[in-house]
Amino acid sequence: MRKHYLLWMIFLFSVLQLNAQTYCVPTAGTSSQSNYLKNAIFSDQGALYYTASSYQAYVDNSSSQTVSSYPGGTVNVHLDFAGSGVKSYVWIDWNNDGDFDDFYENPLGPSSYSVVDDLFFIPPSQAAGIYRIRVQSGTSFPNPVTPCGPNNYGNFVDFSLKIDASPTCFVPSTLTSSNITNNSAMISWTAPATAPGSYEYYYTSSTTIPDTSTPISGTSNTISAPISGLSPFTTYYYYVRSVCGTSNKSAWSLRGIFKTKCDAKTSMFEDFESAVNGPNNADCWDRIILGSGYQTIGSGSGVNSSKAMYQSANGAANTVIAVLPMFSNVNAGTHWLRFKAKVSSTAGVLDIGYVTNDTDASSFVNIQSVNISNTVFDGFEYSVVIPNTIPANARLAIRHGGVPSVNIYWDNVYWEPKPTCFTPTNIVLSNVTSATANIAWTAPSPAPAMGYDIYYSTNNTAPTSSTVPNITGVTANPYTIQGLNSATTYYI
Of 15, 213, 271, 361, which shows the fewest CB atoms inside 10 Å? Predict the structure, then answer.
């Protein structure tokens, strides 16, 4: 008994020694703390996910973040960095000797991209065990580069790699989602080379990763599954694993992500002020981009120098389409779309219509093309009445078709009941004298039964519904305004 006890102690001591290696604590960030590893995903037969929102010179996640693989396996690596022009190195201590100086212990690097998608291979003879991973990121490194630093322009993050025996039940891959509504979605995946008998899937709105004890959400005998009962406008994470036997299941797959649509609205005002700057969508909006078309939300280009949507397209092959939120009354025939728009120089065209598939540009149907030649927002507003003949499942959309090739900005978008009395457009002034001016306009359709009111002032403050007009009951078009002061600027 004593001999067996001694053998177990020797084995236990060797395991503890293997997993208790002392690694150098790297030094970093003395010159810059703007470049660091922001997101990381390592995946094979198991995955790890890492996110950082601020700089830390060194983060040791080796005891809490582990990716699993097997001899001869392939680990996929996704790295996303804060800062620009960031390079990265990935180190692995394959022989567990407490350093990263041996053969093939720097399988990835250097890369010089703000996002890295790469992979490394597990040596076929690699022994089972847990091995240290170190990611080094920065914009400039000393020569030679070392995993202990100094790294004056970046940081270090450690993870762990767990090597298991070759599995007999492999993980599914390439998770996708489709047919997303406000409360349901279809999830799909690719079967491993050795297909299992069935699959189990799990979905959640939490970023917590499932483990072997996590209750499943459902099972499937095919490579897809519908899920329902979801909350609107919510991000969901989903995972799939192979079931090769009652007690033989693969690890959970690399997660898939989708966001449910919003509940349908009955009205809307969007000024983009709460939207994130950049090529993003406002809440509940979607976008379709072809080729090199461009659509973004930016500050300083909207009404009163606020935020606005910006579309740029060069030719029909580079069309961009902004898809509005879903409206439950889209085909009631009672509402219109109203917005402000301008161009930077050359006149352009926006097509106002709808899509029946918010990911397919070919499903766009034009209702009305709007010509935009004004280079300022003030005094210019556009509206399109939406007919009751469009499909109930249609989503309104604003398309820049790329012809002509111009930059178009638009802001203050309303979905609202259409008025019963419409605004005249295209006001034109002519024959100005020291005391008179002719004014003409395009009559709305239908034309007003009681004529027009005219308001003019030397103050550029726009009138409101309570402003008293200077002239009422006008039926002539054009009309001559009289009694003006000479050498005076008027706003009409």
Answer: 213
